[in-house]
């Protein structure tokens, strides 16, 4: 079982620890709902060091990243990152990821914890013909996420990086609490905030400094439980639930990240063909019209016929309703469309609703 460098800090705070894809990770500290609401209203600090970091460098690093991903990495400068994917020739997902341009010939790919070894092998299997080196640096990094409306005020006194002027998906090198870091204005919660990467062997200095500075701002340490409910409210995809090797980028409602004009990439022909022919299904948000919680894998029925399964589903702590995501036939994707979900042997009514369920600024 792998442990992040902050494992002892979590245990000291009384975190509930679970096994998560081979890692010991905190699922909650004070409670999922309390942590969720802290991020929405004040701020939360996450240890996400289980995420994977893969570095591609060399003369043809950009060309290789362009081939592996559907977004246009040529648009990146050395202070920008972008959301993208590793796609199969069928236009489906090996993973979703963030791409950072560290230098003209060097890119950092931040991938999901469950997929880091698989992604690394996938990338290596496609490097033939490209003058590049690929390194799996996952074990070298510690990654923290500071998320919420008070994130700037908490982090600002701990760094000389100009956080106010940093735009979304921009990043900068510097120090936090005296430790060398890369800070990016990114996150997985639907809130403003930052992700902090360090190669330091003492990341607890950053963790403790942020917790201390955040005391006056309502900051809480946050586990994986609230991370999942936060990302669902914001309709941010979870690999293995909402996207996988059976779902295409277009079906996942992520067509905006496909840049067909940039040239060839894995899955381009399949996705272009699917775009021209029209997709037959799409991931849609729903809320329950009756009591219950629609968990992943629960069957979805339309007019008595099983048509799909719930991909993600939970009670929304902020919206105080049961929400979820499922793939529906295109004829049944209009807002208000009703269907049923089988929950513990009982058919429960649900309806299609616009997404994201929650958007920053929708404060109550």
Spell out the key features of this protein.
alpha+beta; Elongation Factor Tu (Ef-tu), domain 3; six-stranded mixed β-sheet; six-stranded antiparallel β-barrel; 20 strands
Task: Please give the structural blueprint.
Blueprint: E1 2-3, H1 7-12, E2 16-20, E3 23-28, H2 32-41, E4 43-47, E5 52-57, H3 61-68, E6 81-87, E7 93-103, E8 106-111, H4 116-125, E9 133-136, E10 142-147, H5 151-155, E11 171-176, E12 179-184, E13 193-198, H6 204-214, E14 219-222, H7 224-233, H8 268-277, E15 281-288, E16 299-302, E17 305-316, E18 321-329, E19 338-343, E20 346-353
Parallel strand pairs: 1-3, 4-14
Antiparallel strand pairs: 2-3, 4-10, 5-8, 5-9, 6-7, 7-8, 10-13, 11-12, 12-13, 15-18, 15-20, 16-17, 16-19, 17-18, 19-20
Description:
The protein is of the alpha+beta class and 364 residues long. It has three domains: 2-51 and 141-233, Gyrase A, domain 2 (2-Layer Sandwich); 52-139, Alpha-Beta Plaits (2-Layer Sandwich), CATH 3.30.70.1400; 280-364, Aminomethyltransferase beta-barrel domains (Elongation Factor Tu (Ef-tu), domain 3, Beta Barrel), CATH 2.40.30.110. It has helices spanning 7-12, 32-41, 61-68, 116-125, 151-155, 204-214, 224-233, 268-277, and strands at residues 2-3, 16-20, 23-28, 43-47, 52-57, 81-87, 93-103, 106-111, 133-136, 142-147, 171-176, 179-184, 193-198, 219-222, 281-288, 299-302, 305-316, 321-329, 338-343, 346-353. A six-stranded mixed β-sheet has the order 11-12-13-10-4-14. β7 (93-103) and β8 form a beta hairpin. It is globular and about 60 Å long. The chain starts with a strand and ends in an 11-residue tail after the last strand. The relative contact order is 0.15.
